[in-house]
Design goal:
The two termini are 48 Å apart. The chain has helices at residues 2-7, 12-15, 18-29, 35-39, 42-62, 65-89, 94-107, 110-113, 121-138, 155-167, 176-191, 196-216, 221-245, 255-269. Helix 11 runs antiparallel to helix 12 and helix 13 packs across helix 14. By secondary structure, the protein is mainly α. The chain has 14 helices and no strands.
């Protein structure tokens, strides 16, 4: 009965408002609220923010709109929590967050909110970088394209973002054939590496070139690998299930028989 009464504190219309989320988080963190919520800091919530973002990515990969809606809500909770922690500390408020991002979106879309004309999405990206550089210049800050990339990004995402940025400064192949030639070159350099250190070095270079190839194919390297991991997991589990159905000792099967199961699993789970 108590939970039933609580659920009626908010109407459906209330629950559809961002302000309701802000009010709920404020109450949770207020004196007499939730002890766990009151203990949280920007630092303690870092892990949760990262996890929620990855769960949203997984929902996108699964093609599940209801799940994505739920995960985006969890990300909004993180935004509201961090804003409330900052408000309590006197650092900034949610209004400051919204003012900053709304202003940035308007400034960096002069082709929508101003008189600038653009021909395609590529030109929008170039204008965005130029506007960022102009803003930094006004602030007296000079930054290289490779500066300001979050160190916490996964390595593939970091590499792709860094290569995106330097390409806009003209450090770019003329066409994809240059990238493909570089892939072959890096493979040959790996073949000739003689020490573990050299092999690690060359594999790193090869990974960077593969990320660059992803860029040229308009593919996010992180997404491509995450989806490949998911496919591998599905297929491997299917292999194990097939072996169990046939009363085979999967671990003791020779590789050629496992390969047969692998090909069968691919036809079943994709």
């Amino acid at each position: 009965m108590e939970n039933d009464q609580f659920s009626h504190q908010f109407t459906d219309a209330d629950l559809g408002q961002f302000q309701t989320l802000v009010d709920i988080v404020t109450r949770l963190r207020a004196p007499g609220g939730c002890p766990w919520d009151r203990e949280q800091t920007h630092e303690s919530l870092k892990r949760h923010l990262l996890e929620e973002c990855y769960e949203a990515l997984e929902a996108i990969d699964q093609g599940s709109p209801p799940l994505l809606a739920e995960e985006l809500g969890d990300i909004l909770v993180q935004v509201a929590f961090h804003a409330d922690i900052a408000r309590e500390a006197g650092d900034f408020t949610l209004a400051d967050v919204l003012t900053a991002i709304n202003g940035k979106l308007v400034r960096r879309h002069p082709h929508v909110f101003g008189s600038t004309s653009v021909s395609d999405a590529r030109e929008v990206e170039l204008n965005w970088e130029q506007l960022k550089a102009a803003e930094r210049a006004q602030q007296g800050v000079r930054k290289s394209p490779v500066d300001g990339i979050p160190n916490a990004l996964p390595a593939l995402s970091y590499s792709q973002l860094m290569q995106d940025r330097v390409s806009r400064s003209g450090f770019e192949w003329e066409d994809v054939s240059g990238v493909l030639d570089k892939v072959i070159e890096e493979i040959e350099e790996f073949r000739h590496a003689s020490t573990d250190s050299q092999k690690t070095h060359e594999l790193g270079d090869l990974l960077m070139v593969m990320v660059n190839l992803c860029r040229w194919m308009d593919v996010q390297a992180e997404d491509a690998l995450r989806q490949a991991n998911s496919r591998f997991r599905r297929r491997y589990l299917q292999m194990e299930e097939l072996a169990e159905q046939r009363r085979l000792d999967f671990e003791q099967l020779p590789l050629d028989e496992k390969e047969v199961l692998w090909q069968e699993a691919k036809t079943i789970v994709g």
